[in-house]
Amino acid sequence: MNETKQLNQDTALMNIINHALHVFPKSFINNNNEIILEPRNNVYFRLDEVNTELEFKCKMFAWLSRPIAKGLNKYWSPRVLGSFNQLLGTNFTKDDMYEIYDRLGNDINRKLTIQFIESNYDMSLLER
User: Fold this and answer.
1) Coil, helix or strand at residue 63
2) Coil, strand, or helix at residue 45?
3) Could you list the pLDDT tens digit for every one of the 128 residues in the chain?
4) Closest to 13 (Cα-Cα) out of 67, 59, 55
5) What is the rounded CA–CA span in Å between residue 105 and residue 121?
């Protein structure tokens, strides 16, 4: 990979991480290289092996879809979903997040997650 492409990938990754730290109130990165997006409810994922913006987005779907869909209470779920949507420029509903969790949660299907992101979040890709 040439230096310019690597620099662009690094910049895009830093931009989305910084944006995440901005849109999720009280978020931070700890000493274990975990991005803690919602500290009170321990909503986080590890940044190890995240080298591109696409990989960051994949982790967002893998590790935030469950708490948003069914792990957080009525107070926290809409707040985390709102920050999630703000970060990705999406308008997912809680019902969408149930479907996303069912098909992409826990990083069960990284290939489909990548297709979903690259399609600009076409929900029809998640239909069975």
Assistant:
1) helix
2) strand
3) 566 666 567 889 999 999 999 999 999 999 999 999 999 999 999 999 999 999 999 999 999 999 999 999 999 999 999 999 999 999 999 999 999 999 999 999 999 999 999 999 999 999 87
4) 55
5) 15
